[in-house]
From TrEMBL:
N-terminal signal peptide: none
Domain VWFA: 277-446
InterPro entries according to UniProt: VIT (IPR013694), VWF_A (IPR002035), vWFA_dom_sf (IPR036465)
Domain of life: Eukaryota
Gene3D superfamilies reported for this sequence: von Willebrand factor, type A domain
Xref: SUPFAM superfamilies: vWA-like
Name of the protein in its database record: von Willebrand factor A domain-containing protein 5A
Species of the source: Dicentrarchus labrax (European seabass)
Chain ranges of the VIT domain: 1-131
Pfam family membership, one: VWA_3
Length: 647
């Protein structure tokens, strides 16, 4: 599990970071983030390093490039196996190579091998991604800068938690600026960090810029909240296709993004249901002990418990490596059962070990539903799980019988997990950091759970003759008051002047520079296809996978089956000096040679361990084994053959 991020060596030591520059381009409800990270190898030998980047869950990486010295390398998206082979070939011939791939378990961690960085050399990494911005309880749109782009700084040897670090001590600098544009005026932009005043770029106030004030302290996430006038008006934005792409393809055709954020009539809203089966699932893994996350989750849960309507049913599960429940099955909510639950919750600590969320979820879904009491699941977690995709698939499979509301607790909760649970479970996601805005967020989710939802939603497209539409988003199953849905669609044919979409005027002002909408549409389509491929796995049907690879390569948006590959062909000069392979394969082989070379007499003590290591190495399918064995023997002055090691 990778909790540290940025540019790391094999020992998970960070390569020194000099500066970070981030430019945020917000268009209505979506954004492109362009970031540049500058690093320096301060060692006296070349090193192979890995760049680890935790992404917001619904984000799509769409550009990656690296500059070393005078050379720039730009990455292309290729089929994963092909990309890996190209990377290995480049490294073994002494060329610089970079590989960026999505982790199989969780879509929000990208790890990137940056090949060899010569001693004393600087590397500059440029990464662009697109993302949808989440709507908050007060109609603000939230953007949060991932920790890699805003690393926490802890002075060396500081054992106490440092609350604030004087900027003069921090060895790297951060510059962050945002440009916001929308069909409607921007009313304000707020942040948990100090900002320079908002600057409007036009009289209508539909375009504005803002930047981080000098002296940022690096002791917190940078969060931006953007507010528009007339927030509940539906908008539709059309983005022209890429001139170089073929018409009829996703990137060659115009793409529309429609945002629906309805305000329900007061009469509907006053009819709040007083029934439901509320199942609360609380994360009590060890990581919840940090920053008093467990305290924050407990307070959230206590507030919810006290606010439930009389006559409903409820139960509380908590989990870590194992799970527990307060009642054998859901009980009716009364003064007595509430007090019993409150007492138990107040004593819950972060003392259950790992984060095994799958088992309690399976147990909850195996319980029969109570007639006329719709099941509502509330999940509280800091999101540190390794099997995000499996968890989300399980929620999706059971989405017909319940709704799932998720709460990401603490700084840096995994947005892939929190947003994924709510999206597939037809509920709503909230992120709770600190205590500042916890109450309104909690009450908003509870209101969603109790209020009527709009179902049977259909969208009609009023298009000119000769234009056809392909909707790329999965159908919307339910909409709640205060919940926003984005619909992406591809327009094929002679689009000509901007058509109108049943009552919603199309805004096609300046939406063509970044291809933000196209890339998010591609990401949406890729996610749907990946889900479909997972459900059909084993049917030997390569069709869906082929389609994912095709959309991914064409749009430059990565997927589970593709990777970014960049090779610096340069002058073909190999980097001088022994290449320090900064990865676990090298370390494992070195250990095996040492054991066989120097500790043969204690073989019965380490034999089982060695067998485990060998089977792990075989599973890695590493192409560098022979090379590592030779280098290891040379380094340790041994002569242990590959077959003796079992390789």
């Amino acid at each position: 599990k990778m909790n540290c991020c940025g540019l790391l060596t094999a020992q998970k030591e960070p390569v020194p970071l000099k500066s970070v520059e981030v430019e945020l381009e917000v268009r209505d409800h979506v954004a492109t983030v362009v970031s540049t990270l500058n690093y320096e190898n301060k060692e006296d030998k070349p090193l192979e390093a890995v760049f680890v980047f935790p992404l917001p869950g619904d984000a799509a990486v769409c550009h990656f490039s690296a500059t070393i010295g005078q050379t720039q390398i730009v990455a292309e998206v290729k089929e994963k196996q092909e990309a890996r082979e190209e990377y290995d070939d480049a490294l073994s011939s002494g060329q610089q190579a970079f590989l960026l791939e999505e982790s199989e378990q969780s879509p929000d961690i990208f790890s990137l091998s940056v090949g060899s960085l010569p001693p004393g050399e600087s590397a500059s990494i440029r990464l662009e991604y697109v993302t949808e911005l989440a709507v908050q309880a007060d109609d603000g749109l939230r953007f949060c800068l991932p920790a890699v782009l805003n690393p926490r700084y802890q002075p060396q040897g500081a054992s106490v938690q440092v609350t604030s670090v004087p900027a003069s001590l921090v060895p790297y600098s951060l510059s962050f600026s945002a440009r916001v544009s929308s069909p409607r005026p921007v009313s304000k932009v707020e942040s948990n960090c100090s900002l320079d005043p908002l600057q409007y770029l036009n009289p209508e106030q539909t375009q504005a810029t803002v930047k981080l004030a000098a002296g940022h302290k690096f002791d917190r996430d940078v969060e931006l909240l953007i507010y528009y006038k007339d927030a509940h008006q539906p908008t539709a934005v059309v983005e022209a296709g890429q001139a170089s792409a073929k018409p009829g393809t996703l990137m060659g055709d115009p793409v529309v993004m429609m945002s629906l954020y309805p305000e329900f009539p007061q009469a509907v809203m006053s009819s709040v249901a007083s029934c439901g089966e509320f199942v609360f699932l609380l994360d009590r893994s060890g990581s919840m002990g940090q920053e008093n996350r467990i305290g924050s989750a407990r307070n959230t849960l206590l507030l919810l418990l006290k606010s439930l309507p009389m006559g409903c049913y409820f139960n509380i599960y908590s989990f870590g490596s194992s799970y527990q429940h307060i009642f054998p099955k859901s009980v009716e909510y009364s003064q007595k059962t509430m007090e019993e639950a409150l007492k138990t919750v107040e004593e819950m600590g972060a003392d259950l070990g790992g984060t095994e969320i799958l088992n309690p979820l399976e147990h909850i879904y195996s319980q029969p539903c109570i007639p006329n009491q719709p099941r509502q699941l509330f999940v509280f977690t800091d999101g540190e799980v390794g099997n995000t995709k499996e968890v989300i698939s399980l929620v999706k499979k059971n989405s017909g019988s319940h709704r799932c509301f998720s709460f990401g607790i603490g700084e840096g909760a995994s947005s892939a997990l929190i947003n994924g649970l709510a999206k597939e479970g037809g509920g709503h996601a909230q992120f709770i950091t600190g205590t500042d805005r916890m109450q309104p967020k909690v009450m908003q989710s509870l209101r969603f759970a109790l209020q009527p939802a709009v179902v049977d939603i259909s969208v009609t497209w009023d298009l000119p003759k000769g234009v056809s539409v392909t909707v790329l988003s999965p159908p919307i199953t339910a909409l709640f008051q205060g919940q926003r849905s984005l619909i992406y669609a591809q327009l094929t044919g002679e689009v000509g002047a901007a058509p109108s979409l049943s009552e919603i005027p199309l805004w096609s002002d300046f939406f063509n520079i970044q291809l933000t909408v196209h890339r998010l549409a591609a990401r949406t389509l890729i996610c749907s296809l990946e889900m479909e491929e997972k459900e059909r796995r084993g049917e030997q049907d390569e069709g869906v996978k082929k389609k994912v690879v095709e959309v991914s390569v064409q749009s430059g948006v990565s997927s589970v089956f593709t990777a970014f590959i960049a090779v610096n062909k340069g002058d073909g000069e190999a980097v001088q000096g022994p290449l320090v392979r900064r990865n676990e394969v090298w370390a494992t082989i070195l250990a095996l040679i040492w054991l066989h070379g120097f500790k043969v007499d204690a073989q019965d003590e380490w034999q089982l361990l060695a067998m485990k290591a060998v089977s792990w190495l075989r599973a890695q399918n590493a192409t560098c084994v022979t090379e590592c064995v030779e280098a290891g023997n040379a380094l340790l002055g041994c002569n242990v053959q590959k077959d003796v090691l079992g390789l």
